[in-house]
Amino acid sequence: MKKTAIFIANGLEECEALNTADLLKRAGIRVDLVSVEDTKDIVSSHNLHFMTDMMIDDIDVYEYDALILPGGLKGTQTLSVNEKVLSYLKQFHKEGHLIAAICAAPSIFVKEGYVKDNHFSVYPGFECGLKTSGLKVSVDNNVITAKGLGASFEFAHAIISYLLDKEAADNVLKEIQY
Fold this sequence. Notes:
Elements: E1 3-8, H1 14-26, E2 30-35, E3 41-43, E4 49-51, E5 54-55, E6 66-69, H2 73-80, H3 83-95, E7 98-102, H4 106-112, E8 137-140, E9 143-146, H5 152-163, H6 166-175
Parallel strand pairs: 1-2, 1-6, 2-5, 6-7, 7-9
Antiparallel strand pairs: 3-4, 8-9
Helix pairs in contact: 1-5, 5-6
């Protein structure tokens, strides 16, 4: 079974995290919601409270096939300065494992040098000096990026296609009447 970690910080865009988690689970992919805060209790950008599965200090990153970052301005800012998150992303990118980010979070990939001009998607205004592909979702080798909440279904589809196959991803979208 494939296994993913979605890094969760206060101020995240909850639907980007939870839609992605839901669709991956429907495909049979294990999803761990991993808090980077001092608690498992998270407050989203829209003041929605929910619990994560575990804390970042309690994970073994080598157990995962993919690391995923949801957006949301405050959540992205927190993820962008978390040394463990940055270290894990660097390790995964270097080793060719999947890293994925949506909305403002791909700006972290830009700053870390994981994406290049015309090969990524990000929420408008977070390009950090690079040109985007113009697509809702971009896949460039082991990096998947997406524009925002409106692209969350396509984002999850791309992750499922990468980890499993396109047929499994298509079946999940068909199942939910997408």
